[in-house]
Amino acid sequence: HGYPDTDIEQILITQEQIAERTAEMAQRIGERYSDTPEDLILIGVLKGAVMFMTDLSRALPIPNQMEFMAISSYGSSTSSSGVVRILKDLDRDIAGRDVLIVEDIIDSGLTLTWLMKNLATRSPRSLEVVTLLRKPAAVSLPVQVSDVGFDIENAFVIGYGLDCAERYRDLPFVARLNPEVYSG
Ligand code: PRP
Ligand code: MN
Ligand code: MG
């Protein structure tokens, strides 16, 4: 991959494990939406969800369409306030459609809580969430997450879309980042 080996403390989920779990989730989701009147709309949250989104889309056994949103949390970068700003909105109407939000990770859950509320006001036929990863703080969230790929430890994780200052998204696996990288 070209990064120093010391940047990666431990691989938590391999490329093969991601592919296997994605295929399982895609089957389950496909069964759930098999009777829907129109194509399922996937909404990927940029940028972290991009890798999972494209793999999930291709693994789904039902027709699906890809849309993207980019959102950013207001305020300090260390603690999210829960107030979110739309950087790129959907460019189409989702009223009456079956919508599945696709996330790479739910950490505090603030991004997702806000997004669910926002999208619910647009009158979709249904609105659910799939995430590849979930951290411990998000396990007890009131927001219902229909599908979770892996519940993981509370560590700084990178790879397969997840970044540290925009780096490491291109790694094909999920790994724990060496703390020396982000503590300077
Ligand atoms: C990350 C991640 C989720 C969100 C989860 O995105 O991709 O979207 O944070 O955190 P939360 O549950 O505490 O809200 P980030 O804001 O880093 O943007 P990115 O996807 O472009 O990396
Ligand atoms: Mn994100
Ligand atoms: Mg990020």
UniProtKB/TrEMBL annotation:
UniProt organism field: Gordonia hirsuta DSM 44140 = NBRC 16056
EC number: 2.4.2.8
Annotated CDD domains: PRTases_typeI
PANTHER family: HYPOXANTHINE PHOSPHORIBOSYLTRANSFERASE, HYPOXANTHINE-GUANINE PHOSPHORIBOSYLTRANSFERASE
Entry-linked InterPro entries: HGPRT, Hxn_phspho_trans, PRTase-like, PRTase_dom
Annotated coiled-coil segments of the chain: none
GO molecular function ontology, one term from the record: magnesium ion binding
Protein name: Hypoxanthine phosphoribosyltransferase
Start and end residues of each Phosphoribosyltransferase domain: 16-163
Family: Belongs to the purine/pyrimidine phosphoribosyltransferase family.
Top-level division of the source organism's lineage: Bacteria
Catalytic activity entry: GMP + diphosphate = guanine + 5-phospho-alpha-D-ribose 1-diphosphate; IMP + diphosphate = hypoxanthine + 5-phospho-alpha-D-ribose 1-diphosphate
Listed GO CC annotations: cytosol
Subcellular localization(s) per the UniProt record: Cytoplasm
Enzyme class: transferase
